Known about the structure:
Blueprint lengths: L31 E7 L8 E7 L4 E8 L8 E3 L5 E6 L11 E7 L6 E8 L5 E6 L5 E6 L4 E6 L11 E4 L19 E2 L5 E6 L4 E7 L6 E3 L5 E3 L6 E6 L5 E6 L4 E7 L6 E8 L11 E6 L5 E6 L5 E7 L5 E8 L5 E6 L5 E6 L4 E7 L6 E9 L3 E6 L2
Antiparallel strand pairs: 1-2, 1-29, 2-3, 4-5, 5-6, 6-7, 8-9, 9-10, 10-11, 12-13, 13-14, 14-15, 14-16, 17-18, 18-19, 19-20, 21-22, 22-23, 23-24, 25-26, 26-27, 27-28
Amino acid sequence: MEKIRLILPAILGIFMISQPACSSGNDTKEPVRFYAGSGNGKLERPIFLCELDPVNEEISVVDSFPATGGAGYLALGPDGKTLFATSGASVPGNEGEGAVASFRVDPGSSGLELINRQSSKGRGNCHVNVSPDGKYLFAANYSSGHAAAFPVDRDGRIMPASSVVRGEGSGPVGNRQEGPHAHQVVTDPAGKYLLVPDLGTDKVMNYAFNGETGELIPNPDQAFLEMSPGTGPRHLAFHPSGKYLYILGELNASLTACRFDPGSGRMTVINTASIVEDDFGGNRQSAAVRVHPNGRFVYASNRSGESCLTVFRIIDGGGIEQVQVLKNVPAWPRDFNITPDGNYIVLAGARANELALYRVDPGNGRLSPTGNKANLPGPICILFIE
């Protein structure tokens, strides 16, 4: 096992481009740390440790860490001791497949030490997630359409896959929906079900998960939720109550609110709203969805044409209505995340090569730019360290 040195690589030319902001008046606010994963496959150190200073409203890059074959999406174990990442390079003996990687997190510095890598059991690994008890890792493979479950031992080592599944079907968008494309893996809050938005089949696959054996089987109460043709479900996010979830449609720039039955795992559509304005003329290619910690707002981004970040209010019964479409955000907002206190959003502009900071109005959920940004190559995932 190679110990990863905590050295900020000057060769990447990472630097601050922020301007001083007025202090909030609360100088006791502590900095908030987060990891950012880069989609730039040429980087030797594609995982970045960043810090948000809420007093001066500044983002800074603190450190960076190696990851074989790059790293995009990240997930933190529930105890905060292990970080998991997608990995582009194949594991020896599994050529042609993607990989997942685990890292030991230093409790003081938040530095990373590689533990091991494992085949993702498919091509185009694009997302990872961890079970609520931390005993299993899940991976979505976009190109081949497979999703997989992996046991994780006490030391954070990823074991060989315990189950591999794949959806069936296609959709009307020929160049994107010729077959299954698993785009995300998300367990319900109790860890009983694994939901897999499949962009290629216009379905959210629904698997019952056995936490003892690691087996995934189609949910006998609802094997999948079928979306409107051409939706291209990409990501979803649960409400803090666990009673609702919100499904992002990449291909039609939609957000669909659903009820979720924790007992049966059934999803039922409430309503659907557009992420873009009615007169939007660009390509519809949505990217990320997050629910505010207070459970009152949902946020979603669109990448193509005029990149935007849209705010929705959660109405009675879990439905949604559009509140704000924030334009002129950094190009290609592949991901964003909300600070644990709910006061800020950090947005990752993948093609702008920068992170941008926005204030959140706690009363109405609306966003306002702070004007502060930080350069970072190809950011596609933001993960706060709580």
